Amino acid sequence: VEKLARTKVAIDPLLARRWSPRAFSSRQPGADHVDSLLEAARWAPSCFNAQPWRFVVARADEPERHARVASLLSDKNRRWAAAAPVLMVTIARRDFDNGKPNAYAWHDVGLAMGNLLTQATSLGLVVHQMAGFDKDRARVELALPDGYDPVAMVAIGFPGDPAELPDDLREREAAPRVRKPLDELVLRVPSP
Amino acid sequence: VEKLARTKVAIDPLLARRWSPRAFSSRQPGADHVDSLLEAARWAPSCFNAQPWRFVVARADEPERHARVASLLSDKNRRWAAAAPVLMVTIARRDFDNGKPNAYAWHDVGLAMGNLLTQATSLGLVVHQMAGFDKDRARVELALPDGYDPVAMVAIGFPGDPAELPDDLREREAAPRVRKPLDELVLRVPSP
Fold it and tell me: Which of the four pLDDT bands, split at 50, 70 and 90, describes residue A2?
């Protein structure tokens, strides 16, 4: 499946090639792959360089941990995402070191994930982020300290064969990628 | 100034080379540059593909609009960022189309900016995001509809000469880039 973004103007292939599949190969990414993804996330910019991003990583070759993290997924996502050989949970630290709330905590987790996605594409990996998981149970299972929010779950691996997906998911896998046109996204500054 | 991230493991040069400078060249990026940045942002992933990101763009070759947007910057940021030939304001739509709140609105603006940053590096541009600006006045000046949050201001251009910065900023421009070590960012899953 080649899901190149149908861009109006050229963008870097690392961005144009990125998409969020549901089919993953069983091939286990190595520790070096995972470290490279985390290293990319680490170098993202953040408000006051607070680096509010945290990560939980579970690999299929540590089956007990992988199963525990997979159990947090919503039923709908578990159908396909439990087969991803690497699962992550992204976490935001809500406050700055001085105790004041960091309004950019989730935003900056998004920036770090932007870096991670590009690095994944660079390594031939695919990534699918999910909002559908049990956040209350994630706080308990992952023993998150006060002031930390579970943000997203992340399925990571090498591209798989969509033919192995259930029918309904295989159809979604083949659907074209769609985005709003730029003129809906760019707001005009009114005349003074 | 070469500010390559001192990575522990290799990451793509488009990520390692990115940093947030205060010195910008007066060379005006073309409309094609700006379109390419926005196109990259447009193809980011988002929760339910809601694409909550919006952008205001002001170019120095439209001086009246550029000055109005620059006037939103905090005094501290205006010292250097007003010289950036492209200024943006990033904006988050807080709700989904169905009216329910989108907890991922700011997170997904961060994802879109992650794409924009990589595309900027790919084009030889540099980008510096800022939290320091007058958000209340931004809502008025930019006539933001209800349900839209101003998130960050963004200075964009080609790299400039740090020698032209005031002394205190020139020192900060030469400082090494620092990040928390990975073992602080990766949380261990406790044993059950």
Answer: low
Which of A15, A42, A182 has its CB closest to that of B118? A15
User: What is the value of ipTM here, to two decimals?
Assistant: 0.97
Best CA proximity match to A40, nearest among A155, A108, A118: A118
Q: How far apart are CA B73 and CA B80, in angstroms?
A: 10
Using a cut of 0.95, tell me whether the model's pTM lies above it. yes
Q: Which positions 17-36 of A are in contact with B (Cβ < 8 Å)? A: 18-20, 32, 35-36
Is residue B8's pLDDT more than 90?
Answer: no
CA of A151 to nearest chain B CA: how many angstroms apart? Answer: 8
Which tens digit of pLDDT belongs to each residue from A141-180? 999 999 999 999 999 999 999 999 999 999 999 999 999 9
A129 three-state secondary structure: strand
Query: CB B43 to CB A91 under 8 A?
Result: no
User: What strands lie across the sheet with B126-130, from one edge to the other?
Assistant: B53-59, B86-93, B148-157, B126-130
* Environment class of A76 (CB within 10 Å of its CB; exposed 0-12, middle 13-18, buried 19+): exposed
pLDDT at residue B1, rounded to an integer: 47
User: Identity (one letter) of the amino acid at A30?
Assistant: G
A65 touches chain B (CB under 8 A): yes
For residue A7, the tally of other CB atoms under 10 A from its CB is 16
Contact B187 A16 (CB under 8 A): no
Q: What is the CA radius of gyration of chain A?
A: 18
Instruction: Tell me whether residues B36 and A110 touch, CB distance under 8 A.
Output: no
- Counting beta carbons within 10 angstroms of the beta carbon of residue A2, is it exposed (0 to 12), middle (13 to 18) or buried (19 or more)? exposed
Contact B106 A104 (CB under 8 A): yes
Strand partners, B127: B156
